[in-house]
Design a protein that fits this description.
mainly beta, 504 residues, four-stranded antiparallel sheet, flat
Amino acid sequence: MMFTDETLESVAVESQWRRSHKLKQESKSCQTVALKSAEVEAQAVYRSESATQTDPHGQLSHDPHLTCDSELESPGLVDFLNRVTDVVIKELAKNSRSHAFDGFEVNWEDRNRTVLCIHCLQYCEARQRKLHVTSLSWNCTGSVIACAFGRTDDGDWTTEKSFVCTWNLHRRGLDPKRPDVIIDSATSVMCVSFHPSRPSLIAGGLYSGEVVVWDTSQTQDPVLAQTGMSPDTHRDPVCQVYWVPGGRRGEFAVLSAGSGGRLLLWTIGEDSKLVLSSGYALSSQQLPHSSTGTKARGGSAVGISSLDLSPWDRDVFLVGSEGGLVLKCSFSATEVAAVTPDGESVTLRAPAQVSFSPRCGPVHDLHCSPFHRNLFLSVGTDGFAHLHSLLQPQPLMSLRVSDSYVFAVRWSPTRPLLFAAATGEGTVQIFDLGLMSLRPLATIGQDSGGQPIYCLEFNPRLPQLLAAGNNNGTVNVWQLSTDLTEQGLREAAQLEQIANGVAE
């Protein structure tokens, strides 16, 4: 079969799709709304220029209102200056030797605003039990304050639960109503004292007569050492405890004073025991001759109510008695005390050397001056602060502090002439011995409703801080202004003059 080419006629079919879309084509566009623009100008309405220029030097002579220096002098001025020059120079030389205005500084502030309460520390359980603040102590860094709670009024103190609380005032988030450390005590704590160089150690004296050393770094059992109820322990409440240098370099012992007339020196031994190393006792038969007419009530023992150590002589300490006596004593005394032995492991010695003029009631507090080796202050029930010298029996001066009792007194650690005293009326009086007036330089109210203030302590590291412990269980920390903390000119010299009995 054979194939041949054949040409056929073409057939065209028109596209309906293209025609339909061509008819529906549209053209669209988009444009933003027209932007509005404007031009603004600012121009100062007023304009001024000013300038000043001194006249040329050559024109001075042509001004009739100006004259040369020689023409400014009045005819009698030179003669007057020549007549008074010698007199003025003499008076200026006299004034340069005068000390009438030494230390005077203008204080434009209101005196009432120079003292500010910055902390009001409380422990709720102690306030609920109506416990009193019996003692205060700052640690060696000046950041932590310890507070002892107890009782000073009627009640069964032997079974009254008590506390020792500490607050770190430099800690962030300080809660004044929540102590950092709370130490429970089975009986009232009458006194506390921080270690001079170890900021976590606190020595305390109890109403039961025990002496305890606590270590606040031990959270489980803070008791580091204690005397326990042994024949060596005080039979009466402990009124004061102090850390004193020990036999070896850097070591310290605890000195405790009891109302029964005994002073006992303790060292920290093994098995959490305080070991008695030496002891002293005061008896009326062995007091210095100037006070032999004063006898202790109910026997020969002289009840101790206050104690302080001399910062100048490690052998000297002062004792205040419940009968109003102030005694200078010596650690190196060798005379055996005329008291009946009560089972002590050491022989008690009689330390009294000098007696000062007696008072009409208990001596509540003593404090030696940190700026003069012979001066100290005593306060008590007579309402006065007495300034004494170790060199004479009579006080150098007496200042009326309160119409009530005075429970505490402290020298300023920075100003030789300044001291503070706490009263039974609920105020702290600050005195400046350099003033002619014997009135207080400042009075601090404690908002305690007239309740007594039992203890008072300056911060040795931060002298602008002053703490006071109240009868209502509150510790107020006050910030003092610079005029109460900065030493003025010749203060030390003025204190020396007072010590020597020389009137200004």
